[in-house]
Every structure is written in C-alpha cells, then in structure tokens.
Write the structure tokens for this entry.
Amino acid sequence: MALVAMRDRPIPLAHLAALTTPSGLYEHALGTEPRVANGMCVDDAARALVVVARMPDRTPAVTTMAATYLRFLRDGQGAGGLMHNRRTAGRRWLDEPSADDHWGRALWAFGTAAACLGDDGLAADARRGAVQAMAARSGHPRTLAYAALGAAQLRRVLPHDEAALRLLRDVRQALPRSRPDAGWPWPEARLTYANAVLPEAMVTVGAELGDDDLLRDGLRLLGWLVDQQTTDGHLSLVPAGGRGPGDPRPGFDQQPIEAAALAEAATAAYQATGDDGWRQVLEACVAWFEGDNDVHVPVRDAVTGGGFDGLEAAGVNRNQGAESTLAWLTCLQLAQALPAGTP
C-alpha cells in the first residue's frame, strides 16, 4: 500500500483504549482480552504516550489517554532520575528504580510529550519528568539511544536546556560505532531487539550536535540493517531469538517492535536527509503489518488497531498485547505524518 493511500485513514485506537484503565495500560492480552494478572509496565506506557502525544487530533479521549500514561510514568519516577518499571493492576510497584531500558523509553516519551502536547499542563508535567529523568545515566547503549531521542525532542521546546545537551554529548561518547568488517559492520555480534534505535540515535545525535561523521555512520548502519531485513522486496524481520552472521532466513517468531523501530529510524533518516529512499523503508514497515511479509498474512486488526504478538511460520500469534499494538499504530501514524513527496 502506497503511503499516499494511507493519508486519510483514521488511526484506530479502539484496542489500545480497551487495554487502558484509569491506572495505566495492561501489558499483555489473551486474544483481545487484557491479562490483568500480568500487570502494567513503564515500557508500554512510554510507547503509548509517544503515540498519543503525536496524534494530530487532540480529542478528549486522546487527551485522557495521554494524561493516564503520563501519570503512570511520573508515578514511576524515583530518586536521582531512576524509574520503576513493573506495577500490578492494584498500583503496587514490583521492582526497585533503575536506569534500564524503561528509563530510556520514559525519557523518550517525556521529551515527545513536551514537544507535541502544546502549552498546557500535560506538556509542562512532561518537561518536569524529562528534567528529573535526565539526572540519571545508563550503561546500556539501547537505553541511552532512547534517552537521546527524548533529549532531542525536549530541545524542540527548550533549545537551550543544558541538561539535554549534556545528555546528548554523553550519549555520543557511549553509542557503539560501526565495525570495519564490511560483511558485518553491526557493532554487536548479533542483532537482538529494537535494533534500529541504535542508528536512529546516531542520526539524531549527529544532527543535533552537528557531528556529520556520526550522522553518516548512523545512516550507513541503518541502510545495512534494512538490507539485512529485506528478502524478495519485503521485510523479513529479526526474530525474537535474534540473528547472527550465517543464521538461516527467514526466522520466526518475528516481532512487531522491529518494524516500529525501523519506521522510527527511517523517519529520522528522512528528516535528516530528505532522501525518498527512507520513505520506501517506512512503506515496507507498514506493508509488513498489512501482509507483505514472509507468511503473507496481516499482523494487525485494521478495524480495532490491535497488533498481533508475532509472525510465525504458520501464521500469527493471535494475542494482541500493548507492545505489538503500539508497534502497528506507530508505523501507521508515522506513514501518515510524513509530508507528501515523490511517489
């Protein structure tokens, strides 16, 4: 499906709304029914806040959802910018605050909400959340990559914020760079999960700091990653078990988060370069959900907006959890938001 054909397609939020309660967002579902016993997590609330903050139409329902996810994230913040992640449906936190992946995603969400929600109380609270979170640091590259995306978004509304600038500079030093091996330039021995966030952060930080070498390296790695996940003109995503040099393809169970990560990174690359080739990557991400994949079956419910939890050799995992649902909504949203250009 060409991007132009999606521009007037409503973004369906029904299933996301069904997973949402006044206290947060359920992580897992059995089919379409929330698994209440499995509770909620900051990871998903952050992804959800990014999606609803970027919605072009601020309906009362969207505003309520944004407030719910933001409140969940703010409640999870602890001393020194660290964050809890997992919480029961009864609002009891199950872990100690840390700076693991959920911290980076929360900072990404705070920055995005601050930049997109306008001049109101929610945006101001998101700015406070971002400032508090930026006091922490993580030792994990993907975590820092997400954090850098949040700091870059925060600079849209606070261009002279010194804490955001310090974080971007710290992330520049910590991001892994491409290896000289032409066959496997990826900075890790295996592709694992949300892989595209690493080159996306390189592109974003490079653009923010005027580091052209980092920007170019990020674009090269992202192009290589797209090639690694493309077969016969469609995406063949890294499976849950990862992928290393020489691993057989296709691999299953393919995870929707990989398509969403590629879509986010392709959008950042397009914004940095204006190269229409990145549009085609975004279109391939949407098409993967629509059925242009290794099994030729849709990985989403087009009516409710639910995303299936994985692509298997025999079809799809019919469960529609928060991560997969938000991955589908992310791809559709980014496709619609990209300015019209060369077909």
In short: Strands lie at 20-21, 24-25, 29-30, 33-34, 40-41, 86-87, 230-231, 234-235, 310-312, 315-317. The chain has two domains: 39-174, 177-343. The radius of gyration is 19 Å.
